[in-house]
Specification:
The protein is an alpha+beta fold and about 140 residues long. The chain has one helix and nine strands; from the N terminus they run H-E-E-E-E-E-E-E-E-E.
């Protein structure tokens, strides 16, 4: 009987850990994706000598030539939202309709992105060179 009780406690603990891990992954996946997209946009803009754009439309993040259709699209989970803040802004705005431009020189607009899910969030600060993250903050609950 003691063994069954201990086994049940271990199973319950592992299920709670798995649920926390799954919730954390729902924010980590789009964060990893936007980091990769930013590096790729910077690389392609220099290589092709064309301005690239990362666009935010509803629950989709797209990468393509500025003014053209997105050649690559990433679908966000329904319960994840993205907010954006430009360098001269104080308030976060919904990212829907926003574009992040990467010029052919390799420079990009500095940008702050915030991915939110329930009470958890991840905030990224991108510098003006090569689409690299210069600061990352998070609170996962």
């Amino acid at each position: 009987m003691v063994a069954i009780t201990i086994g049940a406690m271990l199973l319950a603990g592992s299920l709670l850990f798995y649920a926390d891990f799954r919730d954390q992954r729902r924010l980590e996946d789009p964060v990893a994706e936007i980091k990769t997209m930013a590096r790729e946009a910077a690389r392609l803009s220099r290589l092709e000598q064309l301005p690239m754009a990362i666009s935010f439309q509803e629950n989709v993040i797209g990468l393509g030539v500025r003014g053209g259709p997105a050649g690559y699209r990433y679908q966000l989970a329904e319960d994840v939202s993205v907010k954006v803040r430009r360098e001269q802004q104080n308030d976060w705005q919904e990212a829907d309709g926003a574009q992040w431009i990467f010029e052919a020189t390799g420079l990009n607009e500095p940008l702050f992105l915030r991915f939110e899910r329930e009470r958890s969030w991840v905030q990224l600060t991108f510098g003006p060179l090569n689409g690299e993250v210069v600061e990352e903050e998070f609170a996962i609950y």
